[in-house]
Amino acid sequence: MLWGLIPYGDAVFNHRQVSLLLAELDRLPAACGGDWVGQARELCQVVEQGSHRYLWFVGD
Q1: Are the C-beta atoms of residues 60 and 7 closer than 8 Å to each other?
Q2: What are the b/e assignments for 23-49, b being 16+ CB within 10 Å?
Q3: Residue 34 lies in domain
Q4: Cα separation, 7 vs 4, whole angstroms
Q5: How far apart are CA 55 and CA 36, in angstroms?
Q6: What is the pTM of this model?
Q7: What is the pLDDT of residue 7?
Q8: Dihedral angle sign, alpha carbons of residues 35, 42, 44, 22
Q9: Fewer CB atoms < 10 Å away: N or C end of the chain?
Q10: Terminal CA-CA length for the chain
């Protein structure tokens, strides 16, 4: 799912895709980690906790 993120475009993940995104975050090498990983996990959890929620990444 991370391949869908590009700096200049938007990406939207639904509740089914968020679980795949979380699995990919678990497999990230330590060198690619940082605060952003924890923040992304928190946002994914918000999407999973309700219906009709989406995770949007907005490019420039």
Answers
A1: yes
A2: eebeeeeeeeeeeeeeebeebbeebee
A3: 2-57
A4: 10
A5: 14
A6: 0.84
A7: 87
A8: positive
A9: C
A10: 19
